[in-house]
Amino acid sequence: MKCMVTGAAGFIGSALVNTLAEKGYVVKAVTHSSKPKHRIKNVEYVKGDITDIDSLKPLVKDVEVVFHCAAHVKDYGPKKPFYDINVGGTKNLVEVCKNGDVKRFIFLSHIRYESNKRYGLYSKTKKIAENVLLDEYKNNKLPIVIIRPGNVYGPGSTIWVLRNIESIKKNRITLVNHGNGIFLHTYIDNLIDALLLAMEKPEAVGKDINVTDGDYTVTYGKYFNDLAELIGEKPITKNLSKTSAMIIAKIMIFLNKVLKIKPWVTPTAVNILTNEQKISIEKAKEILGYRPKIDYEQGMKNIQEWLKKESYI
Description:
By secondary structure, the protein is an alpha/beta fold.
């Protein structure tokens, strides 16, 4: 079976490419501006731009499974790249898959943390893309599956490991509401298991499925302090209320728009860090047969080993 992975140079995309190759699938790894850190033997690496529909047409030839992982992942910024990539890019990819041999189109979305009244641009455009795919399934029977992971972490993670470690070392981490928000951790290997099951299970077609490690006991305070302990730093004691953090975040976004100052906190980040949702993974268990194999304790041990191996600590 031939699989295509967009966003193949990213943390999730590269891990997926590696696993697919190990399992003997024929893999076409699509990258854009970023280069993969490690090229895997027998994987076909190709350049592609999902905002250019003509460039996509030759890429889907003979492809049976598409894993669409490419996205504009930021919690602030101008509207255009969010809509061009997350919405327009998905529409383009759907269009070129309609007349091909695609038997499964698996879309990597995400669990939304904002209120229903106001989504950030990333969440908003991901939701629009989900609706596009669901409409294609209902109207044209495109065999789509939507996977919504929580916070994907593990060895190699920039967003949830390396970036936080850098901030901890520079004493730039501040807890919000004493770090009591629920960290919906999703270990990278567990997510990859879910993506492979989405490819294999016919019952998954037409479904949107949430995927986390199924653990609601880990808070952001615990996670950040566990990272601090891994690298030999002192516990994090700085704290802001959600109200204060949100006011600062909105000021930072204003300054970014006016003076191009990079915000150190955003409204989206505040909503994430104060999350109170307990996302059920029963649907993933029932439809996919998903069972998270790596728990939080083992995940942190694996991160520690990787940090040592890569000389970060």
